[in-house]
Amino acid sequence: MNIIVEDTKEILYSPYLQNHEAYQIIDPTWTEEVNKAGSLEFTILPGHCLYSSYKKLSTILDITDDSGNDILWRGRILNDQKDFYLKKQVYCEGSLAFLLDSVVRPYDYKSTTIDAWFSDMIKNHNAQVNAEKQFINGGCDTFSYKVSTSTNDYSQTLDALQDKVNALGGYLKLDNKILSWTSASGQISDQVIRFGENLLDFTDYIDGTNVYTVLIPLGKTTDDVALTIKTANKGKDYLESDTGIALFGRIVKTATYSEIEDAEELKKQGMSDLLDNIKLAVIITVTAADLSYLNADVKTIRCGDYVRIISPPHEIDSYFQCTKIVHYLDAPEKNEYTFGRSMYSLSDASTEHTANNYASFVKIKDTTSAIKETTKALEQDVEVISATADEAKAAADAAKAQAEAAEDVSNAAKDTADRAKSTADS
Q: Which residue in 114, 42, 111, 117 sits closest to 75, CA to CA?
C-alpha cells in the first residue's frame, strides 16, 4: 500500500522507497473500523522530502493499493507532535470526519423516507464545505417505510447521521467520496482464516458492560402512549434472545424508537438491535496472514466483510463480521483483525431477515451438535461391530479348521474302510 498526497500526487510512503532517506517514515499504521472514520498514524523523519510540506486539517492523504489505482481510504492530517530528535508523530482522521465541519439546523419532517432525509443531510453538508470535503450520495437501501422526525437542536452532520444509524441500524460506508447508508456491512470473503495455516494469534473475550437479553421496544408516542409490539408479537411487548439468556441470564432493557409508527417495523428493529447487542458482547481478535498478498486471485479482507474462521482448538468454525482492522503498512504480516461473534450463519445483508438468519444459525448449530453426537455414537457402534466381526471371523476360521480336520478324519476312515473291504474280498 502507498500513502499519497491527494492534490499534488506526491508520494509520502511506498514500501518500495523505504530504503530511500527522502521517503522514510516509521510505523505507518492505518486503522479502519465499522461506522467510524478510522485513522492513520506514522512518524516522519526530518530528512523526508515532505517533512515541512503538509498543513493540518487541509492536507488530505490517500491510501492506495500497490498499483496506486484504487483509493482504499482518505483522511486529513489532524495534528502532530515533535520529539527531541525532531521526529514528528503524525495523526490523521478519516474523511468521514469531514462531516464534523458542517451543521444540521433544526428540522421537522412529516412522513418522509429515510433515503430522502439522508439525501438532504448530504446536500446540506456539501453546501457548507469546500469541494474536497464534499460527498456523493450513494443512497440508503436500509428502510423503505416512512418516518416522522424533527429536532430543535443544532448538531454536527456526523453526529446527526450516527444518531440515526444507531437508532435505526445499518452502516455508513465510504467508497472514496461516495457515502452510503447500507444494510450490508460488507461482502462474504473468499478467504478462510484457518488454524495451522494463516491464523497466527487469537484472543476471545466477553464484554458484559451493556449486555441485555430481553428487550421492550417502544415506538412513536401518541396521546402520551408509546407504540409497542403487542399486535405484532402475539400479545407480548418484549423480545428475547435464547442464546443471550443462556450466556448471561435474563437482563431486561427498554429501547425507544420515537420515529417508528408501525408495530411490525418496531419488532424488526428491536430484534435486530437485540441480536446485535448479544453479538457485540463476544469479540475475538486475531492476527492473521492476508492470503491476498500471496495469491492475486484471492481478495483482501476488508472491514465489514464476513470471514470464515476455522480453529478446532478454540471450537470455532463460523462466519464472523470483521469490525476493525489494524494495518501495519510496513509489516502486513502483523495485521490485526477484530471480529464480532456472528449470530448469523452467513451475512447481515438485510435487517428484515435478521431473526430468520439467527434462527437458521441456531438450527445449524444445534444440528451440527447432533451430528457430532450421532457420529460419536456411530464410531462406537463401528468399534463394536468391528470387534464382533473379528470375533466372528475367528470363530469362522476355527470352524473351517474343524471342518477341514473332520474331512481329514472322514477321508482317513474311508481309506481304512476301502482297505478293509479289499482284504475281505481277497
A: 42
Q: Rounded CA gap, 218 and 237, in Å?
A: 9
Which pLDDT tens digit goes with each residue over 16-59?
898 898 998 999 999 999 999 999 999 999 999 999 999 999 99
Confidence of residue 407 (pLDDT cuts 50, 70, 90): low
Indicate the pairing of strand 88-94 with strand 107-113: unpaired
CA angle (337, 340, 343) in 5-degree steps: 140
**Could you read off the pLDDT of 273-302 as tens digits, one per residue?**
887 777 666 667 777 766 666 565 667 888
Work out the burial of residue 355: count CB atoms within 10 Å of its CB; fewer than 13 is exposed, 13-18 middle, 19 or more buried: middle
- Backbone phi, psi, residue 94, to 5°: -65, 160
Interval 95-112: pLDDT, tens: 999 999 999 999 999 888
- How many Å apart are CA 232 and CA 53, to the nearest integer? 61
In our burial notation (b when 16+ CB lie closer than 10 A, e otherwise), range 102-123 reads bebeeeebeeeebbebbeebbe
How far apart are alpha carbons 252 and 273 in whole angstroms?
A: 13
DSSP sequence for 351-376: GGGHHHHHHHHHHHHHHHHHHHHHHH
Q: How far apart are CA 14 and CA 31, in angstroms?
A: 17
